[in-house]
Design a protein that fits this description.
Elements lengths: L4 E10 L2 E9 L4 E6 L5 H9 L6 E6 L2 E2 L10 E4 L11 H9 L7 H13 L15 H15 L3 E5 L7 H18 L2 E5 L3 H7 L2 E6 L2 E7 H4 L6 H6 L6
Parallel strand pairs: 3-8, 3-9, 6-7, 7-8
Antiparallel strand pairs: 1-2, 1-4, 4-5, 9-10
Helix pairs in contact: 2-3, 2-4, 3-4, 4-5
Length: 238
């Protein structure tokens, strides 16, 4: 279940900022999206998800143009930094909404939710409320919801930013394990160069609304002779 992602001259203007993206991202890889604040990382993700609409260009997922598709119709799942859980609903229901927004769940759907919770280490948490969970546990619930959606592309917008270093490493390891099982295409926004090196197979660097560097992680990690990327990677220029 893998899908390549392509952007062909995808353009969008937000306020005084112009964004133009061109890329072809490999299927079945963990792809990190990096860059300075305001460079366009979240805009890039929002265009893929359908939350922002391009004024020109084409977005293809698995060879299919998704530019006119509603976010719910696109073959993607999203995990946000704030987990996007409903505080008044228990864990099982929060995950069930990922399967069907009206919670019309079959017996196989319910088994899939239980299996997803077990996979992320939260078996028995079905009736817990989000307020009773730690930050890492809430992020695991968000991962479980993404698992049950069974979409070929997983988009993550700085999902570990609010976690302490130990939990960041733990959640990164869980993401890698989930990816190993599913073989899906993962696109993750990250500000942490060490995290990028640790989890990504491929990475892109966005600079002033453009993709300045796109390369496999071994090449990307050299800085590709791009000063802003080298600064992000904290590569000594001396």
């Amino acid at each position: 279940m893998t899908e390549a992602i392509e952007m062909h001259n995808v353009g969008l203007r937000l306020g005084r900022h112009d964004f133009v993206f061109d890329c072809r991202l490999p299927a079945g890889a963990i792809i990190a999206v990096t860059g300075a604040s305001g460079a366009g990382k979240s805009t890039f993700l929002n265009l893929l998800a359908g939350f922002d609409t391009a004024t020109r260009g084409r977005i293809l997922i698995g060879g299919k143009d998704v530019g006119d598709q509603h976010p719910s119709e696109r073959p993607v799942s999203l995990v946000f930094q704030d987990n996007n859980l409903f505080a008044h609903l228990d864990v099982f229901t929060n995950i069930g909404l990922g399967v069907h927004p009206a919670l019309k769940l079959s017996s196989s759907d319910r088994l899939a939710i239980e299996a997803a919770l077990e996979k992320v280490g939260l078996a028995g948490f079905e009736r817990r409320m989000p307020a009773t969970l730690s930050g890492g546990e809430r992020q695991r619930v968000a991962f479980a919801r993404a698992l049950v959606r069974r979409r070929p592309v997983l988009l993550l917008d700085e999902p570990f930013a609010a976690l302490d270093p130990g939990l960041r490493s733990e959640m990164a390891a869980l993401l890698i394990a989930m990816h190993r099982d599913s073989g899906n295409t993962v696109v993750i926004v990250s500000h942490d160069p060490e995290e990028v090196r640790r989890i990504a197979d491929y990475a892109i660097f966005i600079d002033q609304g453009r993709i300045a560097v796109a390369a496999p992680i071994d090449r990307f990690s050299t800085g590709e002779d791009h000063p802003a990327l080298r600064q992000f990677l904290r590569i000594d220029e001396s």
